[in-house]
Amino acid sequence: MKTLRLVLGDQLSSGLSALEDAEPGRDVVLMIESRAEATAWKHHKQKLVLVWSAMRQFAERLRREGLDVRYVGLDDPGNRGSIAGELCRVLDEGGFRRVVRTACGKWGLEQALLNLDLPVPVETREDSRFLCSRSEFAGWAEGRRELRMEYFYREMRRKTGLLMDGGEPAGGRWNLDADNRRKLPAGLAPPERLRVTPNPTTRRMIDRVAHGFDDHFGAIEPFGWPTNSQEAEAVFQHFLDDLLPSFGDWQDAMAWERPFLWHSLISPALNIGLLDPLDICRRAEAAYRQGRAPLNAVEGFIRQIIGWREFVRGVYWLKMPEYGRRNALDAQGALPWFYWSGETDMACVADTVRAARDHAYAHHIQRLMITGNLAMLLGVDPDAVDDWYMVVFADAYEWVEMPNTRGMATFADGGIVGSKPYAASGAYIDRMSNYCRGCRYDVKDRLGDNACPFNALYWDFLDRNLGRLRGQGRMMMPLRALERMGEGDRRALRAKASVLRESMGVFSR
């Protein structure tokens, strides 16, 4: 009687808790390509290629290490289409004394597996690849009136020792975000990016997805994502050597037809387990200690990993399933069609959507302050925003996507994740990008035919949600500016915003 060890498509780490005591000859590793998971959202074609190619290569790696791997392909006879269904089928065949698995990253799948009536006992282990366990985060959150990433991040710095000089933060400050908000000067271009050439397994998966999932979103080529740990290591090393030194200065900048800039591009690999978060943070810290990268760049990178990434996962598991129903601003609108096509004269939106279409990627400021900000200003239903982010990005998994969209991007959670709505007019986009320079809209105009749509929508958003936002301390200044406006100006802005919402197809469902 053997142990069956279940490994999911976002658990492709040799140090996975479900595999830590696996023994060749005594255990079987079960890996399943699930049509249910592939089509729950019509994931970007490049994400399907990434996950399935990486799964197959990880299975081969385990076989080379002597483990018996039972790999159930999407088109294999008898595949029931879901992970729970296939697990039941394999166990019904007999021969196993228990199941060992690592807890899922998706609340719905975790509940489905926990509620299965299986013929053998199941041991569910904590996902130790994260630095803060679910119970540890719940303990940190208990009794706190507000959950703020900044204070959690400081605890994680102390726990890991990263960028600590004794009991104090390196350089005397915990957070150097204020140093990382520079607009990209004209003529400055990032180094040429290392994009991975598809290996034979990935090439076969590109052909398979191109023919079997042609109704899914996005271009399938050029495909440049790493699909095994060696490729992921090469991409990360390129970031350390060539990009990290300037990453901090320009991490919030945006530029026309430059989707990658100095960003690491490791999140798709990191979120399926091809890189270890603590290892990459330690190596980034070493670059600072050795004088190869400045503190503002390294602190900003480490904060994204041990601060933000760990924080949103903690919030997700602490607040689900209720979190997925939150709609604090009662937004009911439909998502505009151009979120799928990129066919809009708003240069910033067109460039961000096209980056998502062509690369399954946009960096965090494009996601937050362009597509997320616009959806919030328009009053788009957070369910529709959730769905869009899950479909279009290669690194999107519900634990990381939902707190970012319902929390940061749309303020649908009412302030659990963020301390205020990240609402902005065209002035912010102009300050952080070169988009406005080539846009047909006038970023300084609010009401004219060629006025930047973000401007009227911003003031209308504040006006529509005045009662809900009064208690948000960080919103006092813009709300006072709104209240100082004459009623005629506010009425004109409301009318302009209404015309814009109608022209974009945003209507109550």
TrEMBL record:
InterPro entries: Crypto/Photolyase_FAD-like_sf, PhrB-like, Rossmann-like_a/b/a_fold, UV-DNA_repair_photolyase. The keyword Lyase applies. The keyword Lyase applies. One of its GO terms (molecular function) is lyase activity. Keywords: Lyase. PANTHER family: SLR1343 PROTEIN. This is Cryptochrome/photolyase family protein. It comes from Caulobacter radicis.
